[in-house]
TrEMBL record:
PROSITE patterns: CADHERIN_1, CADHERIN_2
Protein name: Cadherin-12
Gene: Cdh12
Cell compartments where the protein resides: Cell membrane
Bilayer topology annotation: Single-pass type I membrane protein
Annotated function: Cadherins are calcium-dependent cell adhesion proteins. They preferentially interact with themselves in a homophilic manner in connecting cells; cadherins may thus contribute to the sorting of heterogeneous cell types.
Amino acid sequence: KLHSDLDKGVGTVKYTLSGDGAGTVFTIDETTGDIHAIRSLDREEKPFYTLRAQAVDVDTKKPLEPESEFIIKVQDINDNEPKFLDGPYVASVPEMSPVGAYVLQVKATDADDPTYGNSARVVYSILQGQPYFSIDPKTGVIRTALPNMDREVKEQYQVLIQAKDMGGQLGGLAGTTTVNITLTDVNDNPPRFPKSIFHLKVPETSHVGSAIGRIRAVDPDFGKNAEIEYNIVPGDGGNLFDITTDEYTQEGVIKLKKPLDFETKKAYTFKVEASNLHLDHRFHSVGPFKDTATVKINVLDMDEPPVFSKPMYTMEVYEDTPVGTIIGAVTAQDLDAGSSSVRYFIDWKNDLDSYFTIDATEGTIATNELLDRESTAQYNFSIIASKVSNPLLTSKVNVIINVLDVNEFPPEISVPYETSVCENAKPGQVIQTITAADKDFSPAGQRFSFKLSSEASNNPNFTVHDYRNNTAGIETRRNGYSRRQQELYFLPIVIEDSSYPVQSSTNTLTIRVCRCDSDGTIQSCNVEAIFLPVGLSTGALIAILLCIVILLVIVVLYVALRRQKKKDTLMTSKEDIRDNVIHYDDEGGGEEDTQAFDIGALRNPKVIEDNKIRRDIKPDTLRFPRHRPPAEDNTDIRDFINQRLQENDVDPSAPPYDSLATYAYEGNGSVAESLSSIDSLTTEADQDYDYLSDWGPRFKILADMFGEEESYNPDKVT
């Protein structure tokens, strides 16, 4: 309630209200100054409001007093329950934990005013989950309430937690949440075999390293606490078998370390121990974390292949041994109860295997071809043995045959030497050290000796000094050498080996005389240098040679150009046919003048190439095709042509100068062939000229001349 001292109660004062919530949350009676709340208030939404009030004169509307400010505070009541903002919760605790082991802390939040009353004071309690767990009422810490909780008995627990305000008093508001607690595993259980004896049956043909059986120990623990390690206890048969752990199934896999043989031993018995890999020292008092079981293995008899007496055979034979010589034998046996005979044969893989044969019954190996150690020093092949009673059962063994060397090649100088001696050499000077090589092979190593051949034993120029270590030195025997007298010396050297039979060869060493300086450094070995005049340097010699080469090139180019010009002139005068055509218009001396132009180019090439006698055939009496008689003024021309034609046909020595015969040739492959009657084999009477009409406009005149019904037009004759 607001009241001004100037208010006399006669209605002259008016009260106004402004600020937070004025008109929306709070209102004021303008006459009395009473303030009322017009809607519900929530402290959690707004804990206080700041308002301003003023007294105003009703008539003048002027303030009677200065504006005053006041605060309305909302008093809290317990209208909010506690809430678990992080719930539901998930927690874990190791199994077998002691009482009071920490599990988890929960927390509930109350929106009420913690400074006013007990509205925000929360107390925690367990509604579900006893007697396994407990909770601190004030802090909300959850702990174990029972000792030795076993995961293998129960793994999951669900605990219901309640938070109640007003200090847990009656009438307080409450909220709940769920806590899911899991017991984590610890290694508190040893592995145990479900039975004390395991029986296994294994064929004797099982391969080494193969799995022959599995056994399993049970461990109720989980994860790494359930990992088991298996070991074979030393004893009977333990050295023939091995055991490993399957990491997925935790089973013990028994494997074979050595081959089994039913005929040697039929059964094996040994013990297997199973133990945990990761132990927990807190549970050592429970007892040893391992268990033992007995494994009995019975070997099953199987039909086995033959067994060779050795895993590999090595033999030796000299090269060039006669074909059919026995060099060794292999042996295989059937070790089964009913022993069977064995047959042998070579496992053919390449052509080298054909150098040997094997006796199918005895197993003896003999040569099948002559052997050459220098070609192949070692042969490697396989022998297969099979049982007669069951040929499908086979075994294989590797055979190595080393070819021994027979001394058949003489030693030779290892490399071609380029030996030189200085003109100013002194007696006893070593000018070359030589070595030898031998194609034969000697396990102890070859020993070579060097000497001069018998015909050169008294050589006054050079000698050979054998160093006894497969090398020799070439030494000079005179004081100085002259290239002018002799440039090359040939020294025959005999080289012998130490094998049996002794082989030797004569090798010729070429020694060149060279010019050297005072220190023995070679300056020149060319023979041309001997005849050069004193004082002529190498540069001058090169300049002279270059001049000679340049002169030779100039001469060759000049000759080539002259030949090219001559060839072009001949081609222009003799080979250009068009030039003959151009000069054909010149008048000559008639048909007898053969010098005006070269008519050979216009003749039939076949006639020229064959170079035979005249191919003209004397025509029979000419008979023209049926046509109308020509005009009277053309009779003389026709008679002249016929007369000249008959004279030439009768004369066997007259050349074919008739230009008609020459121009009638159209070349090889012509569809029309020759149009001349001179080269025809038939008479004109036998010809059918009707086909000329099909040849087109170019042959229209000929078609009109030789047609049966066509008239003769003299204007068309050319």
